[in-house]
Structure formats: structure tokens, C-alpha cells
């Protein structure tokens, strides 16, 4: 081998090692940050939210169904072909199926395109309560002061439709690093984890709302009904105990897509425990009962994911400073979200 070729090969090896080191460092930083935000229910609920980082033509993105809180305990990231996604986005193909690399068995998040279309190295998407509490109001004014350039995207079904809407908006505001998604959450892009964290911390500080004070339990009991268990979360119980929150949930149940997907398109309100048990006897598969003035009860195994969604819903309602109506998902948006045909939707709503 010629001496020059040997030197070039060594240099190339060094460059590759440097890139691998940078890659490992980035993975460790993103994982640590994800694990931190993932354990805060005001930032992440269950498997909600996702994160990504880009390295050359590869993007590492959270796998579908995995929990950010688990980022340091288990492998939640899947490498995908970024060049392939960028080519599809440039061609307007939002239905593109991401190509997982390195034979990963994990399936990339359904929000993968949302990460690929952001130009920044590190991207975080969260259903953060303090921000969501504003995103469900019809009079969203934006953060003051804004920690970075931001833009607003109207509600679209998560996946291809939402990605298409974000691409269109970023064409008008390519400098945006914060994207507010109506009734859904926030996307933040930064050069590194530190920048994303600084932006998020500023947003949370300037958009924070003091939750309403809790109402004392009335002492009414429904747990004597054999099939029911009270949810052991004081916030969730407020949905039944606080008349203002209860009034809201009857009209404004469909605030966020994850909430609807996990908890259904209608609030499970029952006049008393007997009517809930009677509904079950009639073949109703409902597992949740919100009983006005009494409490919130579940039948059987309700699960951590549903409980997290219900708590998030309470956290959003408790942060509404007035009785002004909130923006809810419309019947066509619900039908699209739940893949319901119009007839099934009509029947369900008529119940
Ligand atoms: Zn989301």
C-alpha cells in the first residue's frame, strides 16, 4: 500500500471514530433527558411524546408504543433512513413508510415524519400540560416572551395529515424552532439537547397556570358496589367532585387525540354506581364511571396508560382560568381519528 493511501485510511478511520463518539454522546444525552422528562406526568403521559436525533443520513427516533421514561433502562430508539424520508417529504409523499435500519425489530413512532421534517439535530415532541392548557383555548396568543421563533399548526390527525400541515407551515416560517400543535402538543428543535431543554424550560415558565384548588370529597361512596374501584388519584377524583370540571367534561371531553383514542369519544358519566353496573350488565364494555359528586370509578383492569390520559385531562381542565369554551375535536375529526365510518359514529353518538 502506498504511504499516502495508508495515511488517508487512518484519517478516515479517525473521522469515523469521532463520528461514532459524537453519536454515542448524543444518544446518552438524549436518553438521559428523555428519562427525566418521561417521569414527569405534566410533560409525558404513558407512551405519549417522542424524541429524535439526526446523524448524517440516519435519524434515531422513539419506537412506537415505548415510554420515554424507559430511555435509559431499555432501547427505545430505532434508526431510520433519513435521506429516504427527506426525499419523500420533498416529493410531497407524507404517507411514506419509514425504513428501519440495522434490522431493528422496533417500529418507528407514527410521528416519525414530524421529526424528519424538522431541520434541527435534536427534536422533542411532548404533550406538555402547561402548554396544552393553552393549545385548547380558541384565543391562543403564544408565549411571552418567546424563547425561540415559533409557529402554530391547526389540529390535524397525527401521522401523514399532521406532517403535511407542518411542512406547509415551515415553508412559510422556516426559522421556527417551536411548533404549537392545536389541541395536541409542542415540537421543539435544537442544535443539541441543551438548546431544546432551555427552550422547553422557558416555555413552561411563561405558560404556567395555577391549577384550581381541589374541592373536598362529599363522603358519598360508590365502592360498595362489588365491581367498582375508586381511582386512587386525587386529581382524577376532582373530575367528579368539582361541579365546574364536571360541567366542562360533559361538553368538552374531546380535547386531545390521545385522550380520545384511549378513553373514547364520550365522557363516561353515570348518575350513580347502580346505573353503571346496569349498563355493564346490558353488555356495555365500559370500564370507567364518572359519577357526579361521588367519584371516578373503574371496573376491572383500567391500566396505567388510560389512567395517565385521564390525569392529563384533569390537569388541563384544572388550568382553565375562566369558563370560556374550549376548542374540542369536531365530529368529523373524531370519526377520522377513531377510523369510524359515519354510521358507526352516528350510532355511538346517539347512545
Ligand atoms: Zn403527539
From TrEMBL:
UniProt xrefs under Gene3D superfamilies: Class II aldolase/adducin N-terminal domain
Residue stretches spanning the membrane: none
Matching InterPro entries: Aldolase_II/adducin_N, Aldolase_II/adducin_N_sf
Low complexity composition-biased segments: 1-15
Domain Class II aldolase/adducin N-terminal: residue ranges: 29-211
Domain of life: Bacteria
Region (Disordered): 1-20
Protein name according to UniProt: Class II aldolase/adducin N-terminal domain-containing protein
Organism the protein comes from: Rugamonas rivuli
Amino acid at each position: 500500500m502506498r504511504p499516502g493511501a495508508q495515511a488517508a485510511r487512518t484519517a478516515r478511520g479517525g473521522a469515523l471514530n469521532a463520528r461514532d463518539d459524537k453519536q454515542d454522546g448524543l444518544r446518552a444525552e438524549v436518553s438521559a433527558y428523555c428519562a427525566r422528562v418521561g417521569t414527569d406526568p405534566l410533560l409525558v403521559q404513558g407512551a405519549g411524546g417522542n424524541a429524535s436525533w439526526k446523524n448524517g443520513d440516519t435519524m434515531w427516533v422513539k419506537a412506537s408504543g415505548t415510554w420515554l421514561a424507559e430511555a435509559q433502562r431499555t432501547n427505545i430508539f430505532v434508526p431510520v433512513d433519513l435521506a429516504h424520508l427527506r426525499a419523500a417529504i420533498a416529493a410531497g409523499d407524507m404517507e411514506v413508510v419509514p425504513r428501519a435500519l440495522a434490522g431493528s425489530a422496533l417500529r418507528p413512532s407514527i410521528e416519525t415524519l414530524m421529526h424528519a421534517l424538522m431541520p434541527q439535530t435534536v427534536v422533542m415532541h411532548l404533550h406538555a400540560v402547561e402548554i396544552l392548557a393553552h393549545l385548547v383555548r380558541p384565543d391562543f396568543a403564544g408565549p411571552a416572551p418567546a424563547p425561540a421563533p415559533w409557529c402554530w399548526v391547526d389540529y390535524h390527525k397525527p401521522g401523514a395529515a399532521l406532517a403535511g400541515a407542518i411542512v406547509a407551515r415551515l415553508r412559510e416560517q422556516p426559522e421556527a424552532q417551536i411548533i404549537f400543535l392545536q389541541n395536541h402538543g409542542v415540537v421543539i428543535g435544537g442544535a443539541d439537547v441543551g438548546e431544546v431543554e432551555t427552550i422547553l424550560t422557558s416555555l413552561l415558565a411563561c405558560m404556567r397556570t395555577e391549577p384550581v384548588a381541589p374541592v373536598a370529597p362529599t363522603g358519598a361512596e360508590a365502592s360498595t358496589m362489588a365491581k367498582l374501584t375508586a381511582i386512587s388519584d386525587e386529581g382524577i377524583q376532582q373530575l367528579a367532585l368539582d361541579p365546574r370540571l364536571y360541567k366542562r367534561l360533559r361538553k368538552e371531553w374531546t380535547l386531545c387525540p390521545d385522550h380520545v383514542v384511549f378513553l373514547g369519544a364520550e365522557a363516561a358519566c353515570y348518575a350513580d354506581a347502580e346505573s353503571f353496573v346496569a349498563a355493564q350488565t346490558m353488555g356495555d364494555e365500559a370500564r370507567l364511571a364518572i359519577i357526579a359528586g361521588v367519584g371516578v370509578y373503574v371496573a376491572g383492569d383500567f391500566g396505567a396508560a388510560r389512567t395517565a390520559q385521564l390525569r392529563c385531562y384533569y390537569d388541563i381542565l384544572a388550568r382553565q382560568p375562566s369558563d370560556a369554551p374550549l376548542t374540542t375535536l369536531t365530529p368529523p375529526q373524531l370519526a377520522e381519528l377513531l377510523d369510524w365510518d359515519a354510521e358507526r359514529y352516528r350510532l355511538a353518538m346517539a347512545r
